[in-house]
């Protein structure tokens, strides 16, 4: 499976978990948005390239057609064509990811994929819920391991920043 995603690429693998379909339907949790997903992937690639790492990105999760369209012109992106299955994603994250990005931080599938992985570092979207009152009651330290790094999108200029915990 990894060879299909990375075409025998032995570089640094960034794995991105997206969650959209049910999160968009119910409107409670923040779903993977075009702006955050694209800006954060570009941010991580640039950061890793500065440290001399050649990167390839695999996008897994529930809306792969959306991801293919979002990154249609990027040759360094791999979006699997097999149907999305959480168990397959778990196994892939566990074995092949050096860096993980959770674009919909409330996703339990994304969380556990990252948690059981052997990734060197995990990044997550600081925006957890669409309801800002609910977001205000959310304490990231109660959920995310202290080594995981929150990212925030400045929506006025699409710039990603790492948030202090």
TrEMBL record:
Do the record's keywords include Glycosyltransferase? yes
Any one of the GO BP annotations: carbohydrate metabolic process
Q: Does the keyword Transferase apply?
A: yes
A cellular component annotation (GO) from this entry: membrane
Q: Name one GO molecular function term.
A: galactoside 2-alpha-L-fucosyltransferase activity
Q: Which InterPro entries match?
A: Alpha-1-2_FucT (IPR052501), Glyco_trans_11 (IPR002516)
Q: Which UniProt keywords apply?
A: Glycosyltransferase, Transferase
**The protein's name in its UniProt record:** L-Fucosyltransferase
Q: Which organism is it from?
A: Plectus sambesii
């Amino acid at each position: 499976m990894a060879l299909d995603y990375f075409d025998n690429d032995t570089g640094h693998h960034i794995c991105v978990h997206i969650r959209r379909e049910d999160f968009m339907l119910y409107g409670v949790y923040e779903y993977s948005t075009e702006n955050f997903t694209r800006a954060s992937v570009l941010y991580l690639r640039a950061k890793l390239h500065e440290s001399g790492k050649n990167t390839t990105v695999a996008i897994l999760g529930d809306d792969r057609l959306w991801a293919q369209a979002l990154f249609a012109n990027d040759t360094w992106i791999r979006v699997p064509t097999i149907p999305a299955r959480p168990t397959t994603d778990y196994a892939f994250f566990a074995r092949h990811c050096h860096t993980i990005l959770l674009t919909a931080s409330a996703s339990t599938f994304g969380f556990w994929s990252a948690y059981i992985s052997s990734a060197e570092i995990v990044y997550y979207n600081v925006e957890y819920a669409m309801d800002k009152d609910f977001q205000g009651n959310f304490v990231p330290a109660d959920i995310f391991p202290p080594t995981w790094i929150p990212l925030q999108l400045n929506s006025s200029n699409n710039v990603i920043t790492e948030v202090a915990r």
